[in-house]
Structure formats: structure tokens, C-alpha cells
UniProtKB/TrEMBL annotation, chain B:
Protein name, as recorded: Branched-chain amino acid ABC transporter permease
Subcellular compartments: Cell membrane
Organism name: Rhodosalinus sediminis
Recorded GO MF terms: branched-chain amino acid transmembrane transporter activity
Keywords: Cell membrane, Membrane, Transmembrane, Transmembrane helix
Classification via PANTHER family: ABC TRANSPORTER PERMEASE PROTEIN (PTHR30482:SF5), HIGH-AFFINITY BRANCHED-CHAIN AMINO ACID TRANSPORT SYSTEM PERMEASE (PTHR30482)
Gene Ontology, cellular component aspect: plasma membrane
Predominant cellular place of this UniProt entry's protein: membrane
Amino acid sequence: MTLTRRSFLATGAAASAAIGAPMVLRAQPSEYVFGASLPMTGPFATAGQLVAPTLKMFEDLANEDGGIGGVPIRTTAEDSGYIPQNALANYQRALATEENLVFYYGDSTGFMKLVAPELRGENARLMGSTSFASELADPEKNPYQYLAGPSYEDQFDILLENIAAEGGTTVAFVYSNTEFGRDPLERGRAKAAELGIEVVLEESTKAQGADIPTHVTKLAQANAEYCILQGYVTGVWPQLIGGARQFGLPTKFMGTFWGMEKLIADRVTAEAGPFLDGYLGVMPYRYSYDAETAPRYARYAEYQKANFAGTPLETYLPTWGLQSLCAMELGLTALRRVHEEGKELTADNAAEALASIQDWDSGGFFGVPVSMEGNKIGTGRVYRYAAETNLYTPASDWFTV
Amino acid sequence: MITGNLKASYAADEQVFDNRNKRAFLYAALLGLAALAGFADDYVILVACQMGILLIAVVGVNVVTGYTGLISLGHAAFVAVGAYTVTIFHEAFAGAIPEGLRALIAIPVAMAVSALVGIIVGLPSLRVKGLYLAVATLSANFIVIFLIEQEVFAPWTGGMVGIDTPAPDFLGWTLDTKREMFVLIAALGVLTLLAVQNLFRTRVGRAFIAIRDRDYSAEIMGISLLRTKLTSFAISAALCGLSGALFAYFYARILPEQFELALSLELVAAMIVGGMGRTMGPVFGVAVIVMVPEVIKSIFGVATGGEAGVAQLLAPLQEIAFGLLIVLFLLFEPLGLNHMADRALRALNRWPFAR
């Protein structure tokens, strides 16, 4: 057959119909959905209420940058009351009602564990969360779940390495009698032994309403140079430090991510005096006021000023909000990479792309380029609280463990 | 209009479903459940399973509180015992019992262990009543959770961090999806309701009611308070154990915090809202306790587009709406939804002669 102009056009049209039609049929969706469960009521309502507005900010800024391959994203959130089963129901509802759900943000370790076995086939989505539980960072067991920072075990490592660097020789572990409190203990013991630091006390307390004088007395008897507090959010840790200072203990107190919120430290300082001065703790992220050479933070600040006027978020982003934003930015980065590779936005492809995030310039969250290793980012830095300025300032370089 | 039930034989007199309306309701309910299993989406199945699991436990609470008049605020402990027993059983007999038989044995074992714990917890009921008994049973809840969380038992219970649960396998049929679990939960839920309905047509069941209405009168009539009260606790705890076993099979992981006081209160609340001492009471109660928050959430979600900023403001309102609903029910229908349904059905049946 000779190729005439007419036959060429006809063949071309037929070929485009054959190849192009499925492309048209599989047209891009009008939006991608990022779902979330947040504890907007219940014991952690303070955190949930402060995190909720940041979702809209994330959505607006991501869409300014073209969403995912030009398709806008939409965020949606529901209250869980910090009950894992409620969050699971929220996730299932989102799966059933949101056709283009590509990412989900969970609000507790309990939920992440409960949902993990459900994430199979059609029901799987890429999933970040508020939890830094060590158990979740396991790509073999939970390929779709990740930590947007170091696990609690890593945070203990960072603190212990900092103690060793300062020449400390004794440490006490004080933790809430919860899963959250106990998470890094075993690793902490091993790491302390490795660094030649003696663990002189391991003290378990209630998560709320602990018997402060008893714990302070034990701490005084142990006479540790450093004390690491783990498993607290708004209560117990400030009272413990206050009790120890009244007792005249010179122990240096340290905390992990959930015990590092400036709003809490400021409130305690305003109500009870400057006894948190010098409190140290590990933070995966830079505080929002540490915006120098952090273009992302500068952009957030601009948005906050314009949209959150008259609220605490106008000039400051709580660490809890930073965590959610970082988790969602990582998810978005992974999904964009999947799209750029021309693949479907499935959880498997997203998990693969997530693992490819190496030497990531986070634009501000972390002070150094970071990598996703084993579904977590093991980077953080020690910050110190100053009661006079009401600011946490860096007390170490960035550690990657 | 049905004005009475003609009973021409002893067999007819012994029927649970003694008229065509009741039979029609049963068949419709079974059809409805089958349709759910076949056509509902995963979210509806999840909520239905949550309701089924809670229903069996509320039926258990209803036996001891609704029918026997012994207030218990510790029934979450029995649910926990059931859940942990099946999990430990599967682990302990992993090699000894073939996989296809393990769940078939584990469920009755979980019920038996819960019943045993129920008898122990029920002991104070012989000496104390009312609020005092409520406090005594409350402590059982705390003690059981405390024991589960102890490091010493962590190799079996997982301690604070909880433990992964097995998927049940019935003679080679592994129930590893929510839909398959729904079939099991629905079947056991219906069976539990029928069993309890029948229980109160037996001597033991009537003895429970006699104790509820006036315990010393019951004793004078020859009912052994010791045996009957403990039997009531045992049956009740066994049903909660069954609920716990299903809970463990349904969720991939159990955590001690899932069985704390909040669950005990939820069980009692569902029973009160539904109607104490009525067979269908728990069904209505569970529907309100589980479904209403979901419906409120869905309505609010549709109304607001699920935007986080709005959800943030509305979340507390949802809680208030739900609380208000319960208060209004208790104010205007203290006998529970079951009573409301009775009146509606009676009016329908006698229409237009009565309203």
C-alpha cells in the first residue's frame, strides 16, 4: 500500500483514536483529596484545634504551586476525639466518599496501628501522622506509613549524644506510664550504655495528675546530672521541673517533640515564673520564628499574617502545626514525583516515591538537607528555652542518627 | 389489625415469634442484613460491624442490669478479657490446634474465661446493691486494665503498646476482610438476641426478673440469690466475652485503652437509651450511640464540604448535639427508644381506632 496523504491522515486518526481514546477516558480528576483525622475534641483538643487551620494553608499554598500536575488538591478533616476507632471510621468514610483520596493524615499512634493492616490494595493510601512511634517506621511492615521526623528512639539518641558531647555521665528517664512514654526506653538504655552514660533512675508517672513531690524526691535521691522526660504533652513535665527547681535540684531537664511547644512553655512561665529557663529538648523542626534562609517559613508567615489575624497563629506556628505541614509536604512531594514519572497516584507508587526523597531541601523545616530512610527522617537538633525572651534557641548542631 | 394471638397447640404457645408481624420483621431484618453484606460499601460495613460488636456487649449488660437489676459499670473489663483471651489462645495453641479449628474453640473459651471473671466480679453483688455495686464493678474495670498493662504480662498481652490480633479461620475460611467479619458478627448478633429472648422464657430468666423486682420476695419464693445473681453475672460476662472475641478478630490490633471506663459507660448509655430490660432495647441503643455521631458527622461534612477550618469549629458542636440528643431522649422517653417504637407500632396496628 502506498502511503498517500489521505491514507496517512486516516491511519494517523485511527491510531490517535486507538491510543488517545483511553487517555481521554482516563482523564485527570478535577481534584485530589488530602484527608485528615484530628483530635478537635477530647484530651488533645488544644493541639487539634491549632493544627486544623494549617490544613487550609497547606491546600492554598500547594494549589498556588499547581497542586499535583496542575490538578488542585483539597484538604478535608474530621474530628476523632483522639479515639483510634473513630479515626478509623473517619478514614473508611473518606475512602467511601472521596473518590480521589490520595493521602491521609492520622492523629495517633493507636490509629496508625489499627489502620495499618487495613492498608491493602484499593484501601491503601499514603499516610502521615502526628506519631513519632518507633514501631511505625518500618517499611517492611507498614510500607505506606511514615514519620515526618525522627522516631522517639532517635530523639532519645539525639539527646543522649548531646549529653555525651557536653561530658555528662548520669541521666534519669522520667516517663508517663503510657505507650507513648515507654516507647524509647529500651533503646535509650542501650544507647546510654554505648555512650558510657549511667541511667541512674527510671521513673514512671501518670500521664496526667502525677504525684509530683514523690517523683521529685526520687529524682533528688538519684542525683542525675540530666533528666529526659518522655510521654507528656501539656501537663506533668512543667510541674516536675518546677518541683525540682523548688527543691534546689541542679538537674538539667530535657524533653522530646511533644514536650517542646513554646505556647505551653510561655503559659507556664507567665503563670508560675521562669523555672523552665534552660529547659532543653530535641526538635526535628526549626521553630517558625527561625525563618532566616527558610523560604517556606517566610511564605507561611505571609499567609498567616493575611489569613489568621487576631488568632495565636497570626505570628507563630505551633510545633504541632509544623509537624502536620511537614508530613503533608512530604506526601505532596512524593505524589508529585509519581505524577512526574507519568504513573498512577497509587499508594504503592507513592510509597516508592517517598523512599526516593533523598537530600531533600525542606525549605525551612530542617536546617540541613534530609533523607527519608526507613520511612522516617532521623534528623533533629537540641533547643534551649529562655524564660526571659520566651524563645527556644538552638543549643546544638543538627544531628542525623 | 392483630387483636390477639391464637394459640391452638403447645408448640404455638412456645413460639418466640408468635404472630405474622413479628415473623415478617424477623425475615425483613435477616434480608436487610444479607443485603448489607452484599451491597454496602466498606464504610457502612465498618459502622455495621462496630454496631454488631457493641450490640452483643450491650445485650450482656442488659442481662445483668436490665433484667436482674444489678448495676454494673465494669463490663468493658469482660470485653477486654474476651478480646485478650482469643488473642492469647491463638498464640498459645498455634502449633497444637489446626488453624481451621482454633477460632471455633477460642470463642467458647473466651466466653468461659469472661464468665469466670464475671462470677468473681459479681461476688460483691451478694452484699451490696445500687450505687455501691456500681463502684465495686467499676474497680473491676480498672483492675483488669491495670493487669493487662503490666510489663510482667506483656509477653502475652503486649502491655501498653497493645497486640496484633489474628484473623479467624473457620475450617479453612479465613475471615480477613471486614465484609466477611460482618457475616460472622451479624450471625452471632442475631443468635445472641434470640438466645436472650429465650432466656427470659426459662426458669432462670424469670428468676432474674424476680430479683430485679424485689430480691427478698424472690428469695422467699425459693430463688437462691447467690446462684441466680452469679449466673446472671456469668451469662452477662460471657456475652461481653463474645463481643470482645469479635472485637479482637475485627480490629487488627487491640490496645488496653480501648477497654477503659469510656467503653463501660458507652455500654450502659446504649442500654438506657434503647430501653432497659427489653430484648430490642440494645438494638435501638446501639443504633443511637454508634450511628447518630456518624450521621451527625456526615451531615456536618456535607454541609461544610469537610473543610478543616469549619470542622474545627463544628467538632465541639457535634459533641454538644449528640449529648443534647441523649438528654432529650431521657427526658421525653425515659423508658427508651424501644418503648417509643412499641407505641408507634401499636398505633399503626390499631389505626384508625387508636393513636
